[in-house]
Structure formats: C-alpha cells, structure tokens
Specification:
binds pyridoxal-5'-phosphate; alpha/beta; 15% strand; 3-stranded antiparallel beta sheet; Aspartate Aminotransferase, domain 2; 37% helix; 7-stranded mixed beta sheet; single chain
Length: 395
C-alpha cells in the first residue's frame, strides 16, 4: 500500500463522467452551447441561489465579481490572510487595495472582530467590501458579517471555493448553504480538480441579484450585449430600417473572454450529481480523523467535526510540522500546507505588511498541515495515514 502515493486531494472521474464529455464533444457545440445553461441551472439549484454564471476558473469568477461591484483604484477591501492568493488578487486586478484581517484561531476563518477593528479605525466609507472565505470547507457565519456590512455599507463576495454543499445554521435555526446569496452579494466557486467538483479548469458565480447577474453575463463575454432594448447606437447606424438587424450587437463595457466550454460544463453536470455523496464521504473521513487525533499530545488543534463543514481540507496543527511533513513524504503520503499567509507573500509585503501583523494567522501557519481528504480515499489508506502520523511522533 505504501507504494501507491496518497495526495492531499484528488479528483474522481467515473465512466459516466467520461461518457458525458464524449457526448458533448460529438455534439454541435464545444462552447457557447446548451451545457452551460444546464450546468448553471443545476448548480444554482444545488446551492440554493437564484442565478449562476459559469466562468473559466475560480480566479476569473473573483475578477468578474470585483468588476461587477465597481472596485476602483484606492478602494479598500478586507479579506483573510489564510486563503489562496486569488481571493485577494481580484481586488488588485481592479486597482483596489487589499487589507488583511486576522483569523479566529479556533475556526481558522476570518475573525469578525479583526474586521470590525479595521472598520472602526478608519473614517466610514474607507472600505468598500469584504471577501470572506469558507476556508477548508467550513462555512463562515455570513449572518453576522452581513449585519456588519450593512452598518458600513459594504458589499460581500463569499469565496466558497472550498465549500459547495457546506452550510451554517443561522439565528432562526435555518441551514444557510454556502453561496446561496442570502447574506452575500456574490459568491464564487472553483472546479479545479482538487476541489469538490472537477471540470478541469472552471468556476461559477452565484447571486440572488438580477442586476449583478446580467452585468456578469456581459463581462464574461467581452462586455458585449445582444438585446435590442439596451442598445445605445441608433437603428439607422446599425444598418436596419424598422428594427436592429439580427447580426447587430454592442460592446458597451470592457469585458473579457472568461467563458467555460460545453465539454467542461458536461463534466461539471455529471460531477454535480455525485456532490452530496462526496460530502457524505468527506464527513465520514473527518470523523475518523477526529477520533484518531483527539487528545494526542502532538496535536494543538484540528479541523474537528463541525456541523455543515464541507471538508475540502482536514487540517491538523502539530508541533514539528516540517519533520512530520517530510516523514509523510518518505512514506508516500503527500500532505500539503494551506496556506502561507497571503499578507507575507513578497507581493503583498510591498504594501507594508510585515511579520507579526496578523499573529493568529502566522501562528496557525507554523503548525498547520492538510491531511489526505477526498471521497475515494479508502479506509485502509486513511488508517495508514493515521498510523504513520502516530508512528512519527511516538515511534
Ligand atoms: C481554488 C481557489 C481559488 C481559485 O480557483 P481557480 O479555479 O484555481 O482559479 C480561489 N479561492 C480559493 C479559496 C481557492 O481554493
């Protein structure tokens, strides 16, 4: 068994998935066809949001969100340091300024108190938005973030890349699914192979806001619209007589080509059908990890069993993390570190961030390690991971 390498995450492609892609490859549309709408509709239903917009990848999704919300040079936006860099970079694409909050050391999520501190220490209107992240698959409590956002007139973009199918329970006792748009203006997902649903590259934006929805559709395709009642050039200019000719379209704002292809969407649709099954399995694995590591002297903290957690990652905070990481590699177990704090990436240091600025994030980074977590990880393999970790610390 030690001969098969065990990664921290991996995709699961079935014959049915392959069949779905082949059918689309043989169809009339490789891109801009019917699979996109079908994927968007089934994804929106799964998440519980009104609208979904499929895009090329999660980073493109974030970029379009920042554009749709009119992020401009000088605008300040808050996010967490413990995330993939794209959560912050999307603000920089639009010239905005990223300000990092700190994490809550218990949940690993953006600490609302650190956000409040930032907001209170600047004149109102300084900050424009927040990008909270459902890090590792644990849903952030957007109900409290929404209340704070309303107080300061901020928008919220939920980075839910780790958490399709995750939820938190609101004060009314209702399950609020990540990305359902009840508390955030926009939410984004990624379909990179390490995430829950794989389409190769791929992403999705969900929202309940009709205006933002139409704006996103336009930005996804170069800023072009094809809708008679919205044109600003005259019919005469367009070359029509009574009406706009059917070839006519207008580029009204500067957009991009951030489209997903139809064969990727076909894979996404097929994968989505197994999403609940995948989460169920991830939760079983999490429970076994928690049982195995609870009370161990080498564990400082772990992800643990948390209601609504979607378990993109299962994280341990350990002593001697480097030693464990290398030992696991020598045993063909490829654990990973999520994440190197964003505010200390050389790119972000140039804006004035330095060590000690976000102590909880930095302390977390010193001990964190993400264990293998994916639906096809067998119990035997998981036992091997657990016993190898135990062996490292206790011989
Ligand atoms: C994967 C990921 C992204 C970016 O998604 P891509 O599809 O790789 O561009 C953004 N944010 C988080 C938290 C992610 O995990």
């Amino acid at each position: 068994m030690a001969n098969n390498s065990i990664p921290y995450g991996r995709q699961h492609i079935t014959d049915e998935d392959i069949q779905a892609v082949i059918e689309t490859l043989r169809s009339d549309y490789l891109t801009q066809g019917p699979k996109i709408k079908e994927f968007e509709e089934s994804f929106a239903t799964y998440i519980g949001a009104k609208y979904a917009v499929a895009v090329a990848n999660g980073t493109a999704a974030l970029h379009l969100c920042a554009m749709a919300l009119n992020v401009e040079p000088g605008d300040k936006v808050i996010t967490t340091p413990i995330t993939f860099a794209a959560s912050a970079n999307c603000i920089r694409y639009c010239g905005g300024e990223v300000v990092f909050g700190d994490i809550n050391p218990e949940t690993y999520l953006l600490d609302i108190n650190s956000v409040r501190d930032l907001l209170e220490s600047s004149p109102k209107g300084t900050y424009k938005g927040i990008v909270p992240v459902d890090f590792a698959g644990r849903s952030i409590d957007l109900e409290v973030f929404k209340a704070l956002a309303e107080e300061y007139n901020l928008w919220i973009v939920e980075d839910a890349c780790h958490a399709p199918g995750g939820y938190f329970v609101d004060t009314q006792g209702n399950e609020q699914r990540c990305g359902n748009g009840n508390f955030a203006d926009l939410a984004i997902f990624s379909f990179h192979p390490v995430k829950h649903i794989a389409s190769g590259e791929g992403g999705m934006i969900t929202t309940n806001d009709e205006k933002l929805y139409y704006k996103l559709l336009q930005l996804r395709t170069h800023g072009i619209i094809k809708q008679d009642n919205l044109y600003t050039n005259t019919i005469e200019f367009a070359g029509g007589d009574e009406a706009y000719p059917s070839w006519y379209m207008e580029m009204q704002t500067l957009g991009y080509n951030y489209r997903l292809t139809d064969f990727q969407a076909a894979l996404g649709i097929s994968q989505l059908k197994r999403a609940d099954q995948g989460i169920k399995r991830r939760r079983e694995l999490a429970k076994r990890y928690e049982n195995a590591f609870t009370g161990k002297d080498y564990i400082k903290r772990q992800s643990g069993v948390v209601e609504g957690h979607a378990y993109h990652l299962y994280i341990l905070e350990v002593r001697d993390r480097l030693g464990l990481y290398n030992y696991l590699r020598s045993k063909n177990i490829f654990a990973q570190i999520h994440y190197i704090p964003c505010h200390l990436m050389p790119y972000y240091r140039q804006f004035g961030c330095k060590e000690g600025d976000r102590p909880h994030s930095e302390e977390y980074y010193r001990g964190c390690i993400s264990l293998p977590m994916y639906p096809t990880l067998s119990e035997e393999e998981q036992e091997y991971v657990i016993s190898t970790i135990h062996q490292y610390f206790h011989g």
